[in-house]
Design brief:
With 283 residues, the chain is an alpha+beta fold. It has 7 helices and 16 strands. Helix 5 links the parallel strand 11 and strand 12.
C-alpha cells in the first residue's frame, strides 16, 4: 500500500498521470527516511530540510504540512504495510501536481505520496569483512551551488554514474564538480580522515545537504581529539587519506576499503558508528 495525498491505495491504483510535474520536469523533492519500530530517525532534520527545499523551489507549502501531520501520514502508511514494528525504508515525495509548461499553471497544487519497504538492520553496523571499492566518475560534473544540494527528482548523474559503477565492478563512485573538486559519492556524502583531521566538502561545492552528514559533523564537534572542517577536497588528497567513508541515513557509515591502488582502514569509522548508535538510543 502507498499513501497518495492521504489515501491508502494499492500500487496498481496509485499511478501518477503523464501530466504530473514531478514526472515531466523533475519538479519534485523527496526525503529518504529510516524508521525503526515507529521511530523516524532524525525526523526533525528531514522535515526542516524538506521545508527549506520547497521554499527554494518556490512551492507553496500547504497549511497542513506540519511536522506532526506528515509524521502521522508516514506512520499510517507503515501500519498499512505491517511495518510499524519493524525496520523500514520510507520515501516521502512532494510534487507540484499537474499543469503548465516550465511555468506551473498553479503553485497551489502541491501534493505528496509515501512508499515504504522493509529494511534489514535496526541500527547501523559496519562489517569489517565487506569490501567497498570506489573510483572517480568523470563523465559528467556537478555545478557548484546550493541548488545542486537539493534532494530533488533530478538525479541523472546518480543514475548513469551507478550504471558506470556496476559496469566496472565498483561499489560506488565519487562525483566531481565543475571545479574538479570531489564533492560526494553517488549515494551519500564523503568524509576524509587524515590523522586527527577530518574533512567533508562544503555545501557551496554542490554536495547534498545530507541528514547523516549533519549528524556526523555534530558528533565530530564534540570530540576534542579531532578537528573537523568543511573544505574542498582535491582528487589528489584521496590516496593520501588514512580513511574515507560515505554517509547516508539508510546505511549510516560505509567505509571505503579501496580507491584505485590505495587500501584504507576503518578504525575511525567504527568508533563513529558506535557513537551514532549511542546517540540514537538516547533520543
Amino acid at each position: 500500500m502507498v499513501n497518495f495525498n492521504g489515501s491508502l491505495l494499492s500500487i496498481a491504483d496509485s499511478k501518477l498521470t503523464v501530466n504530473n510535474r514531478g514526472y515531466k520536469y523533475g519538479d519534485a523533492l523527496f526525503e529518504t527516511l529510516k524508521v525503526v519500530n515507529g521511530k523516524i530517525f532524525f525526523w526533525e532534520d528531514h522535515y526542516f530540510r524538506l521545508m527549506a527545499s520547497m521554499r527554494i523551489l518556490r512551492m507553496d507549502i500547504p497549511m497542513n504540512f506540519t511536522m506532526e501531520f506528515l509524521e502521522a501520514e508516514i506512520l499510517k502508511t507503515l501500519e498499512a504495510n505491517n511495518l510499524l514494528q519493524a525496520s523500514a525504508r520510507v520515501r516521502l515525495n512532494v510534487d507540484r501536481g499537474e499543469g503548465g509548461k516550465y511555468t506551473p499553471a498553479s503553485n497551489a497544487k502541491v501534493g505528496y505520496n509515501i512508499s515504504v519497504e522493509a529494511h534489514d538492520n535496526l541500527f547501523y553496523t559496519i562489517d569489517p569483512q565487506t569490501s567497498y571499492i570506489v573510483d572517480l566518475y568523470k563523465d559528467y560534473f556537478v555545478a557548484p551551488g546550493l541548488l545542486s544540494g537539493l534532494k530533488s527528482n533530478n538525479k541523472a548523474i546518480q543514475v548513469i554514474g551507478s550504471i558506470y559503477a556496476k559496469e566496472n565492478d565498483f561499489d560506488n563512485c565519487l562525483v566531481l564538480n565543475t571545479n574538479k573538486s570531489v564533492i560526494e559519492a553517488l549515494n551519500g556524502n564523503l568524509f576524509l580522515v587524515k590523522g586527527t583531521h577530518i574533512k567533508t566538502p562544503p555545501l557551496e561545492d554542490g554536495c547534498l545537504k545530507g541528514i547523516m552528514r549533519k549528524q556526523i559533523l555534530e558528533l565530530l564537534s564534540k570530540d576534542l581529539n579531532v578537528t573537523a572542517e568543511e573544505a574542498s577536497i582535491s582528487p589528489f588528497e584521496l590516496q593520501k587519506a588514512d580513511e574515507l567513508f560515505v554517509t547516508n541515513v539508510i546505511k549510516g557509515i560505509m567505509p571505503i576499503t579501496k580507491y584505485r591502488k590505495k587500501e584504507f582502514k576503518n578504525d575511525f569509522a567504527q568508533s563513529l558508528i558506535t557513537k551514532l548508535n549511542a546517540k540514537l538510543r538516547l533520543v
